[in-house]
Amino acid sequence: MAYYIGIDLGTSGTKTVLFDREGKALASSTIEYPLYQPKNGYAEQDPDDWWNAAVGTIRAVLEKSGVASSDVKGIGISGQMHGLVMLDKDGKVIRRSIIWCDQRTAKECEEITERVGAERLIEITANPALTGFTASKILWVRNNEPENYAKCAKILLPKDYVRYKLTGEFATEVSDASGMQLLDVPNRCWSDEVLEKLDIDKNLLGKVYESPDITGYVTEEAAALTGLAAGTIVVGGAGDNAAAAVGTGVVEDGKAFTTIGTSGVVFAHSSTVSIDPKGRVHTFCCAVPGQWHIMGVTQGAGLSLKWFRDNFCGAEKETAALMGVDPYYLMDQEAEKVPVGSNKLLYLPYLMGERTPHLDPDCRGVFFGLSAIHTKRDMLRAVLEGVAFSLNDCKNIIGGMGVPVSDMMACGGGGTSRVWRQMLADLYGCEVKTAANREGPALGVAILAMVGAGEYASVPEACRAIIKADKVQAPIPENSEKYAPFYQLYTELYPALKDSYKKLAAID
Known about the structure:
The protein is an alpha/beta fold. It folds into two domains: about 5-240, 2-Layer Sandwich (Nucleotidyltransferase, domain 5); about 250-435 and about 475-505, ATPase, nucleotide binding domain (Nucleotidyltransferase, domain 5), CATH 3.30.420. It has 18 helices and 24 strands. The strands form seven sheets. Strands 1, 2, 3, 5, 13, 14 and 15 form a seven-stranded mixed β-sheet that branches. The protein has a seven-stranded mixed β-sheet with strand order 18-19-17-16-22-23-24. It has a two-stranded antiparallel ribbon with strand order 4-7. β16 (about 255-260) and β17 form a beta hairpin. It is globular and about 70 Å long.
């Protein structure tokens, strides 16, 4: 029997899962690690924490499952994107990794835009300069820690450091590399033009592979630490969202997924490259060779509901504890009692500024239409609807780029809410489903390992065999009609408030 390992290197911890060729999870293990914030806006992690977590979780799933290491035929790695790992000539970590949510690089983003040109940068990398991306972090180290930059011999992404420790190979793959702002996204290779204009040596970067390609083999040293067999293949893997797409079967045109975590993501597959010249959505290479994905992000999705729960739903939290249920379960029941449109109350979910479609760090949350008739229950439903409206913004921009969506999966904690899924189905005008398998990114990269090992001929073939839908929410036409005027009004509120947001931000 053949088995495959998926490693998902997240921000809070690394989760490793062992699967059979049908995608059934046989064992799972998670090890957490710290996040360091030495200054306001900074976010760093120690790459060796990731490696130690990978070693520990691999050993754990092999021990729990009783599967012989010789029966593990392939390994895939998923990971948090954009993090900067710098190694010296001996392969040792120079400094802690500056990770995706770090916000220190605003000046470096201006520098990148000035050096490359705003339009040219989007043409090549498919995205404007963003603080989260890796290129600005490289420039920050060069500008602020020249002694560390001088020592740097190799630059890797988080999951690619684990690959290096497993195989000894300096490599990455197209989906994760797309988030570095150094990749020519349409042509799926490092951009000599961007590297030259930013004065970054191409030799610092690893070789770029497609996601199911074999990038290396487990070394004797790594085998001794992990319990794996030396020579086990390690494939390219994928960045976290690209891995989740494979794990939910979003690998063909017309397919998409919506994730409602702290932030919200609408992710659509595309067999052709399509770039928004305004930079409102991200276009990256996806984990299917020769294809792409488009991703819109709303900053305050699940965060909005958590904020409302923590500040206004003390009674629900107490009752839920007594009942042994999740407070969100009771909040869903309350929201269901309110009609579409929340009795003419609208919520703008901009608690952390916004990315899609507005790309505005200064905008903030709003309840619009609040009157004496409204109750906490109305406000709760308005929060759910406001997030759904924002996600619909993302879907509509993607559709306007010539990438239609007819099949939508729902993921993340918010995806478990039947009420929220129904709102999305009514607004999107298509069925919204959940996947029967909940392993997401870990399953996605295990599927990539199956393809790399020859278990399946292609990523779409593997997904058709393995991924099954579970719950299905069909749109209710009557609700869709009722939502239309509320959504239209919602889209008019940000433009009306844009200048006021700037004024508010300028007040000391």
